[in-house]
């Protein structure tokens, strides 16, 4: 085993074994997050948030905030996102790409609370860090969230335009990202009355992602297909929690 003194200190970020371990856990956590493996992601990011160089810790806090936002834990997402940005500000790295995920997480929280102007401003902050630095995955996620803000603002055509821009910059076929993209596009197409287009988009991949299942339920309700609604509710995704349980209970209540 190498002593800490023998470990190459790349840019001052890998000066010890804990720094290397923190970087490795961060990489694993972020990759798992975008693949939709939230349990693995959470375990890795929680380790990265408490060890290694402070830069890795800030990045891990922002990624954890995004995980919590996607899981429906809005309070936790808001707290983690605020901590990440405060920590980044103290270190003087709040203008760096590592702050982008925290801004994105806070934008998702704002959208869910119907604070759409605030959400748009936070997305501008996220894009301002992700796009100039050449982070296409983050830039694509920001455009996807812009599409949902447009949908919630009653501008589905603008949302579809944002997704078209996202498709031109996308570089990842990660399962989680694909499910979010298909779910968002289907909802946008339903909003403009394009049920056939929504069905086509949803059929481009598996139905085991929460965003896809939610869009399929909306499509079945739009078509008045009670049997399909019951089947969807019976086979509802079990993750992420608590979002999965809350959405299933909501749909069951609507159907009853």
Structure in words:
By secondary structure, this protein is mostly helical. It contains 13 helices and no strands. It has helices spanning 17-35, 38-48, 54-71, 74-91, 100-112, 116-130, 136-152, 156-169, 175-191, 195-202, 210-222, 226-234, 243-255. The longest helix has 19 residues, at 17-35. It starts with 16 loop residues before the first helix and ends with a helix.
**Main beta-sheet strand count, sense and barrel state:** none
Shape: globular
Order of helices and strands: HHHHHHHHHHHHH
Relative strand content: under 5%
Poorly predicted ranges = 1-14
Fraction in helix: over 70%
Radius of gyration: 19 Å
Specify the number of helices.
Answer: 13
**Structural class by sheet pairing and helices:** mainly alpha
| Amino- and carboxy-terminal Cα gap | 62 Å
- Count the E strands: 0
Could you report the average pLDDT, rounded to the nearest whole number?
A: 88
Short key terms for the protein model shown above:
256 residues; mainly alpha; 72% helix; 0% strand
Concise overview:
The protein is built from 13 helices and no strands.
Task: Describe the protein's topology.
Blueprint: H1 17-35, H2 38-48, H3 54-71, H4 74-91, H5 100-112, H6 116-130, H7 136-152, H8 156-169, H9 175-191, H10 195-202, H11 210-222, H12 226-234, H13 243-255
Helix pairs in contact: 1-2, 1-3, 2-3, 3-4, 3-5, 4-5, 5-6, 5-7, 6-7, 7-8, 7-9, 8-9, 9-10, 9-11, 10-11, 11-12, 12-13
């Amino acid at each position: 085993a190498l002593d800490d003194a023998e470990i190459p200190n790349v840019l001052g970020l890998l000066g010890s074994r804990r720094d290397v371990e923190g970087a490795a856990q961060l990489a694993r956590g972020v990759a798992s997050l975008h693949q939709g493996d939230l349990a693995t992601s959470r375990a890795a990011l929680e380790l990265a948030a408490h060890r290694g160089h402070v830069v890795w810790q800030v990045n891990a806090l922002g990624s954890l905030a995004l995980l919590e936002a996607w899981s429906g834990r809005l309070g936790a997402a808001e707290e983690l996102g605020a901590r990440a940005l405060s920590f980044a500000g103290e270190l003087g790295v709040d203008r760096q790409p590592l702050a982008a995920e925290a801004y994105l997480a806070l934008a998702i929280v704002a959208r869910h609370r119907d604070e759409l102007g605030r959400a748009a401003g936070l997305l501008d902050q996220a894009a301002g860090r992700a796009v100039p630095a050449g982070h296409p995955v983050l830039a694509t996620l920001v455009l996807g969230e812009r599409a949902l803000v447009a949908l919630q603002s009653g501008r589905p055509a603008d949302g579809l335009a944002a997704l078209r821009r996202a498709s031109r910059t996308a570089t990842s076929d990660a399962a989680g990202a694909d499910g979010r993209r298909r779910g968002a596009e289907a909802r946008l197409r339903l909003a403009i009355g394009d049920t056939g287009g929504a069905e086509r988009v949803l059929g481009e991949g598996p139905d085991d992602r929460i965003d896809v299942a939610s869009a399929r339920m909306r499509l079945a309700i739009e078509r008045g297909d009670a049997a399909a609604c019951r089947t969807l509710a019976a086979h509802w995704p079990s993750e992420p929690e608590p979002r999965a349980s809350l959405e299933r209970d909501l749909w069951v209540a609507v159907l009853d």
